[in-house]
Amino acid sequence: MLSRPVPPVVAQQAEPPPRRWSLLSTVLLALPPAALALTLSVLGIGSRSMWNDEYATWYASTLSFRDLSKLLVNVDAVVAPYYVVMHYWIVLFGDSETSLRLPSALAMAGTAALTALLGRRLFDTGTGLAAGLILGGLPSVTRYGQEARPYAFAIGFAVLATLLLLRAMERPDWRRWLLYAAGLILAGLVHIVTLTVLLAHAAFMARAFRVSGDLRLLRWIAGASLAVTAALPLAAKGSDQASVIAWIKADGAAVTGLPERIFGSWQVALVVTAAALLATVLLGARHRGSLVLLLSWAIFPPVFCYVTFPLFHLFLHRYLLFTLPAWALLAAAVGYSLVRFTGRLSSKVPVSLSALLVLAAMLLVSGPGQRAARHSPVYGEPDFRGAAAAVLAAARPGDGIAYAGSTRNGRRAFDYEARDAAMPRDVLVHRTSQANGTFGAEECADPGLCVGDTGRIWLVSTTQSNLSPMDGMPGATQGFLLTAYTVVPYRTFENVRIFALDRKDVK
Length: 507
Description:
Subcellular location: Cell membrane
Structural class: alpha/beta
Strand content: 5-15%
Main location: membrane
Helix content: 55-70%
Number of strands: 7
Membrane topology: Multi-pass membrane protein
Number of helices: 25
Pfam families: PMT_2
GO biological process, one term: lipopolysaccharide biosynthetic process
Shape: elongated
């Protein structure tokens, strides 16, 4: 009796188990990059004088919530969550330069650690370690790890969101997709431009779905949509306030100078991008998914900001710093790309650690960039710290102070530098910045009425040396001061001059 043929069994492809690492191995991997980034960020963290945007952070973060709300209606709404966090930080730890910048240094340390973990998940442990160290050693990471602005947090949350994306792909349940959405929301809250990392995530997920056909991966759309929806109010308000960033340019100089500004120096940019391009060529099709993710992350946000510049004016290197981890990961993948040329699996991690040579080359050429990161003041900015100290040392009771300059106005900077001292009366203020709900005060239409009989006025001028020190002041104010006072040069600091205006009719 012939047996009936057995129908073929359709094999069900089992899901690969998610990769797991011990807590000890994770800590040991994360510590060296975090330590390097923190050390370089903390060294000299309080020695560089603050600059315009950091003074803005101090001003906004020390306002009452009522005054802060009034400010955010007019300007900087997209940075509101950072200001709120910094408000409580200042309450706890004070407002020294070191204290204001320490959150950024800690965020950079966390970012370097997360980059190492992301590199391990994308490639292997050796690549992760090299990537975290490369990121931590970048001059721009030092520079913005020593800055009281939200960019360090933006980089960190971009890495965190990408790491959560990979975890959700390994086990695509709703809980993990919600965690991914939360990471994206945090990235958008600290700086809205960071959400352009979604362009890279979208390219990566499109390829992953095309390869696997797993319908659960479509849950990514829900997570991404949730993050975009949460960010829409900030984005809409920021769009209303776009006039405050109208000064940003996307001309040839901005484009060609972007690598130097993002990496911190041309030398470092060349080393890292050369290693990244070599890794891209060597990895080829073997790790196409990882390459799609990292190349999209590195390239799509700048291209998007450039193409949409006429609408949004977002093509600024500081806004694009969150692409640095992608470059560090690609550069570190050079070692991993060489693994296929070895015949033994046991040599995998040691060979991938050869990417530490990229780190060594980068550190070798990073000296000028690291020195520039610590230059006081920031290149191109006025030395308001030195100028304020000079005025405080020379001022007498009854003196006044006034500010001129069409690019930087020293009023907010002097408020910070003299926060624990008695600065001369600001003689031209008619309506304070708090009352205006802006970063700038409203000056008197009738300067004679406001100045009164003040015998000496200290003029803080950020005008170029070949221009009148009163350039930027209203004509009526200039006319009154030149008529009533004798202008005497007093001290010159980097990009700022101090003049003593002595009353002519005082005997």
